[in-house]
Design goal:
Blueprint (H helix, E strand, L loop, with lengths): L15 E2 L2 E2 L14 H16 L7 H13 L3 H13 L11 H16 L3 H13 L7 H12 L4 H13 L7 H12 L4 H13 L7 H12 L4 H13 L7 H12 L4 H13 L7 H13 L3 H13 L7 H7 L1
Antiparallel strand pairs: 1-2
Length: 325
């Protein structure tokens, strides 16, 4: 637990032990909104929910808790809300965060990062990566991720791995990306387990191994990580690394869709359109395609357009079909 620089009594709501997020104390109650200690505790609970520490990952609940912490007076919570909106499409339409609030959060993280705080360095890296409160600067993002990753911070290792995988701020190197994902996955970080699973799925940076991919997806999915639930659902749907099972695939897609993941909504919609693993239901298929399309997923927009073109699950409407196409 780290004191917020220059403001006695207000504490950073990042908790770092041996470079990775450790389990912060859970608040026994939510008291007066102006009580800084409750704001910090609520923010810490949001981080636990975001990262699956002592609970399953739940992005919607994490976002709700961050907003509650912000109302209670947490400066950092505003920064976390802005980062969620920048990185998770389901939150993009949730209302903008006042710019001065983001700047205050970034200032807290900058001050803490200068003292060597691994959690703050990681958060500051994400701010530079996504342009939250600072200009987009992939090189600076990678520098902060590395400072944090070198201390063993699991999320920074994963984020630096993404930089190497995409060649953002560092030369593209998929072997190095896989190595960093493994360091993070070995600490139990669900996102890194999912990323490393994708490496094995596609044979990028490691030899292709569908069985190992499915194993890693399952480790991540068991923590509630939405992308891994969707990826494992695809494995079950196609029989890749696991036995083919459309019912299990639909179950996994639903768990991901319930977290607002656009890809999972798309795949579950396809199951309802075709009757794979669930009873055929064109109206439910169209509803799920609509949820996914609203997040900007192009293929979902195309599938929804097809629904309107043929009048499947929605009234036939050629004008709407053309708009979606």
């Amino acid at each position: 637990e780290h004191e917020r620089p220059g403001a006695p009594g207000l504490r950073l709501c990042t908790f770092v032990a041996k470079g990775r997020m450790s389990e912060p104390p859970s608040p026994a109650r939510v008291a007066e909104p102006t009580d800084p200690s409750d704001a910090a505790a609520t923010c810490a609970l949001a981080l636990r929910t975001l990262d699956g520490i002592g609970t399953r990952i739940d992005l919607l609940e994490a976002n709700r808790l961050f907003r509650l912490a912000a109302e209670q007076g947490s400066v950092e919570a505003w920064g976390h809300i802005a980062l969620l909106a920048a990185t998770t499409s389901v939150f993009k339409a949730g209302g903008s965060v006042p710019e001065h609030r983001i700047e205050e959060a970034v200032a807290v993280w900058k001050a803490a990062a200068e003292t060597g705080d691994a959690g703050a360095q990681r958060l500051l890296g994400s701010c530079y990566y996504h342009g939250v409160g600072v200009p987009v600067d992939p090189t600076e993002a990678a520098r902060f991720y590395r400072l944090s990753a070198d201390q063993g911070h699991a999320k920074a290792q994963r984020n630096l791995g993404v930089c190497y995988a995409k060649g953002k701020g560092v030369p593209q190197d998929k072997t190095e990306a896989a190595r960093l994902y493994r360091l993070s996955a070995d600490q139990g970080l669900a996102g890194a387990q999912c990323n490393l699973g994708s490496c094995y799925d596609d044979g990028e940076g490691v030899p292709q191994d569908k069985t190992e991919a499915a194993r890693l997806y399952r480790l991540s999915a068991d923590q509630g990580f939405a992308a891994a639930l969707c990826n494992l659902g695809n494995c079950s749907y196609h029989g890749s690394g696991v036995p083919k099972d459309h019912t299990e695939a639909a179950r996994l897609f639903r768990l991901g869709a319930d977290q607002g993941l656009a890809r999972a909504q798309l795949h579950l919609g396809h199951c309802y359109e075709t009757g794979d693993g669930v009873p055929k239901d064109p109206s439910e298929a169209a509803r799920l395609y609509h949820l996914s399309a609203e997040q900007g997923l192009a293929y979902a927009q195309c599938r929804l357009g097809r629904c309107y073109y043929f009048g499947k699950g929605v009234p036939q409407d050629f004008t709407e079909a053309v708009r979606l196409y």
